[in-house]
Structures are given as C-alpha cells and as structure tokens.
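Hi all, posting the design record for the shared folder.

TITLE: backbone redesign
STEP: 1 of 1
STRUCTURE INPUT:
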C-alpha cells in the first residue's frame, strides 16, 4: 500500500489522470428551468386531455361523476412533467438520465445481452430485490404497497378517463361486457369468480396497500433509526394518505353490501377528496421516486454493460489509486468525474479513490493543517 498524500486534494499523476473532456453545458438559470418545466407540463396536460376526449369516444363513455378524479389526473400529469423536467435540468441528474436511457434503448446492448434488460426490469423495478438486502419484512411490505397501488392505478385511471366501460350484455342477466375505447374485449358472468374479481379488484388492491402501509407506519413509530430522520409531510403523510384511500374505498363496498347504501354519499366524498389530494401530492412528495425509478433501471443497465465491456478487455473494475481495492467500472467512474466537472467542483480526481481512502486522506489533511502543533 502506498503512503497517503499529505494534502486533502491529491493531484493525480499525468499517467493516472482521466482523459480531458469538454466542459459540460452551462447550468440554466432557475427562471429558465421553471419556464421550460411549465411549458413541458402544459404540453403533457393538453395531450392527456386530448387522450381522454378521444379515448372516451368524444366523451360518450366518460362518466361525469368521475370528473374530479379526471381533473386530478390532469394536475398529476402537469406536476410529474414539471418536476421531472426540473430534476433532469441539474447537471448530475441530466448526465445520469442520458446515460441510463441511452443504455435502455441501445440496440447493441440488446444484441450482446438480450436478457439483461427484462431481468433488471423484473428484479430491480418489479420485485425490488435490492430492498431484500436491508430487511425481508420491509421488502414484503413494499411489495404489497407496490402491487396494490399498481393494480389500483391500472383499474382506476382507465375507468376515470372513460377508456374502460362495463355494460350489461343482456339488460337483466348477470352477463357483462368489458370494452376498451368502445371495442368489446371480453364478456363474463358477474356472478362467477372471475366476475367477482373484476368488480372487486379495487378492494383487493386496498387490502394489499393497507397491510403494507400499516407495517411501514408501525415501523416509523417504533424504529429509532426511522424516527430520528423522519419528517411528517415527507415520510408519514404518504402512508396516511394510502391508508385513508384504502379504508374509505373498502367502506364504500361495505356500505353498499351490508348497510344498503347507508352513509355512502359521505364516504364517496371523503374517498374522492383523499384520492384527489394524493394525486396532486405525488409529484412533490416521496411518491415521486415512482417516476424516477425507470431511469434508475437504465443506470443499472449502463453499469452492467460497461462491466461486461471491461471484462472483455481485462478491465473488470477500476482500482483505488491508494489501496488498489476495486471501486467500480471505468465507464461509471468516468461518468461520475464528468458530472463533477459539470458541477465545477474542482476535485473530480477523488472519484478514483474508494470511500475508506477518501476518509483517511481527509483525516490526514485535517491533522496536518488544522491540528498542526497540537497533540
């Protein structure tokens, strides 16, 4: 092991220095970013409104009782597009975004590793196996919330927009037809098991979400590590919203079956308010990571493909310049250095050191310069 340098910012030797890159695009002003994000958000909202109008056959299949939900989805589309545009306007996020999606849509990567992308979508995006390394209970609870919300969204959004319709095929019998954009997809008996699942899909989703959200809420109240850094609006509010939506949705079913509609109007309004509030909250709270996750899949694919290329050249991973322990793939380290240069941080060579050596170098510099002369 080589001796540690005596300064906090070691200068790399010419042979070790990363190849020079042209300076990144100058950061945009906050006002310019907001204008661009507003324009993108408005465009996405208009496209969604047009999709609702034409997808519901010029509003013939649109249920006016669901208008508040539809309006909330339009605000959701604007907020997601606005926040996403602001997010990728930052130099670091923009570089990761470009590299991730470039790998995601790369035909060369698909030819070399055709199963890599489907596998990462299933393991990283669908089943989130990386959460299992932290806690099996947290992984199971996250799966319940994830699949419950996914099922609810797959049912609610198309129905709200008038894309899905369920009509009686006989007028008096139990037969129903499901239509998408006016075209018949399938017919089923509402009294069958399949029919029960079709009409109670939201109830099933609510049970899944309640189980997962209650576990996380319990953990937030009991785990000292979670209590220390949690914030009510960011950490607790999403869980409370999910539980309120799910409970009020189940109470609507309970009211219609066991109470003959008693209290249904009040519960319907309470359920609608909770759903609308949550949809508007999604782009600006913790739920935004749902939108960011696909870009992370592309970044994982970028790391995977760059590692495969390195293996072909005998360069599996880049070694730390101090202790020679592996850090990451050369392509990933170079991407990190480019991001640091875009941010004009002035110490991009530190990306070639492992975390432990960075701490040692900072400690030595502190002892040499700040504590010099003191025992």
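Okay, here is what came back for every position:
SEQUENCE:
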């Amino acid at each position: 092991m080589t001796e540690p340098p005596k300064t906090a910012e070691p200068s790399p030797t010419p042979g070790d220095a990363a190849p020079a890159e042209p300076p990144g695009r100058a950061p945009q002003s906050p006002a310019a970013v907001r204008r661009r994000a507003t324009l993108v958000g408005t465009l996405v909202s208009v496209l969604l409104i047009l999709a609702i109008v034409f997808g519901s056959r010029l509003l013939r299949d649109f249920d006016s009782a669901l208008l508040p939900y539809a309006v909330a989805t339009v605000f959701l589309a604007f907020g997601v597009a606005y926040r996403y545009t602001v997010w990728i306007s930052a130099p670091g996020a923009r570089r990761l975004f470009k590299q991730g999606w470039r790998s995601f849509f790369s035909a060369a990567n698909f030819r070399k590793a055709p199963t890599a992308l489907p596998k990462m979508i299933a393991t990283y995006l669908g089943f989130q196996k990386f959460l299992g390394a932290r806690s099996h209970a947290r992984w199971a609870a996250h799966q319940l919330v994830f699949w419950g919300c996914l099922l609810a969204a797959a049912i609610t959004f198309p129905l709200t927009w008038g894309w899905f319709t369920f009509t009686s095929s006989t007028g008096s019998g139990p037969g129903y037809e499901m239509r998408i954009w006016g075209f018949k997809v399938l017919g089923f008996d509402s009294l069958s098991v399949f029919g029960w699942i079709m009409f109670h899909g939201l109830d099933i989703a609510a049970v899944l979400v309640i189980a997962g959200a209650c576990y996380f809420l319990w953990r937030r109240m009991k785990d000292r590590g979670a209590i220390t850094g949690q914030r009510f609006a960011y950490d607790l509010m999403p869980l409370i919203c999910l539980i309120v939506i799910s409970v009020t949705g189940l109470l609507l079913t309970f009211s219609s079956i066991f109470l003959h509609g008693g209290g249904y109007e009040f519960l319907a309004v309470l359920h609608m308010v909770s759903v609308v509030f949550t949809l508007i909250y999604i782009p600006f709270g913790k739920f935004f990571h749902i939108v960011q996750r696909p870009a992370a899949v592309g970044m994982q694919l970028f790391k995977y493909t760059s590692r495969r290329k390195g293996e072909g050249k005998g360069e599996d991973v880049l070694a730390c310049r101090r202790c020679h322990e592996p850090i990451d793939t050369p392509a990933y380290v170079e991407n990190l250095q480019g991001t640091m240069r875009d941010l004009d941080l002035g110490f991009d060579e530190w990306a070639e050191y492992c975390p432990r050596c960075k701490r040692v170098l900072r400690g030595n510099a502190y002892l040499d310069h700040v504590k010099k002369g003191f025992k």
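COMMENT: The first strand starts at residue 164 and ends at 168.
Let me know if anyone wants the other runs.
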